[in-house]
Design brief:
Helix 4 packs across helix 5 and helix 5 runs parallel beside helix 6. The protein has one domain: 3-Layer(aba) Sandwich (Rossmann fold). It has 226 residues and is α/β, with parallel strands linked by helices. The radius of gyration is 17 Å and the shape is globular. Strand 9 and strand 10 form a beta hairpin.
């Protein structure tokens, strides 16, 4: 049996504000298999984005352990975590986070500027990613010249350009119209099924959740179904 791509064990997260403790997550256990797509649902404030950030190594748990792609995140330095993220994590945000003064090509190329790839190699990777999302005809367009759905597809291309182990998507369809939402969900499903990418998607949308292989529910910082 294949090792899980994500293993979360007994994870708690408490934020401190002065002398006050604010518990966000409590005793979370979650396992995601290679190539599995998981939707994470729950009311606002239930800790979904916090858990996503912990899995990405953007934040650290108060208690518990997290392994991603066979690597224990506990004890990694910030530099090691940054290197880990650049290799293994592709992040997709609700509001795209594209840089307005850069073209679609340049936005997708950004993560590769931290690698040792040559300019020609970077171009090959970028064009491959843009081809996967169906936007090779938009490489010279700026974000303001694209529709919301196209902007999100550029953001997905940027997330996959380094060929990460797992895609973490935080409300990826939350700011899209119905048609664009369907296009993005079809693309995510293709990345999962054809390219075998593991995906964890935070969503409030039952339709988006239904596109995943499994749904987990967070409620008041606890995993209530899995």
């Amino acid at each position: 049996m294949a090792e899980p791509v994500v293993s979360v064990r007994g994870v708690a997260k408490i934020y401190r504000r002065d002398s006050q403790e604010i518990p966000v997550l409590e005793n979370i256990d979650l396992t995601v298999a290679p190539g599995e797509s998981v939707a994470m649902m729950g009311p606002s404030g239930s800790g979904k984005t916090t858990l996503l950030n912990l899995i990405a190594g953007i934040d650290r748990p108060t208690r518990g352990s997290i392994e991603v792609a066979g690597q224990a995140l506990d004890g990694m330095s910030e530099r090691e975590l940054a290197k880990f993220r650049s290799r293994h994590i592709g992040f997709i945000f609700q509001l795209y986070n594209l840089i307005p003064v850069l073209t679609a090509f340049e936005n997708v190329e950004l993560p590769l500027l931290l690698t040792r790839l040559s300019k020609a190699e970077r171009r090959t990777h970028v064009m491959t990613a843009l081809d996967v999302v169906g936007l090779t005809d938009r490489i010279a367009h700026y974000p303001r010249q694209l529709s919301g759905g196209q902007e999100q597809r550029v953001a997905i291309a940027r997330a996959i350009v380094t060929d990460p182990t797992i895609l973490l998507a935080d409300e990826p369809t939350g700011d899209l119209d119905k048609r664009s939402e369907e296009e993005v969900l079809i693309l995510l499903k293709r990345l999962n099924r054809e390219f075998k990418k593991a995906i964890i998607m935070v969503t409030h949308d039952p339709k988006a959740a239904a596109s995943a292989q499994r749904t987990v529910m967070l409620e008041k910082g606890a995993l209530v179904t899995a």
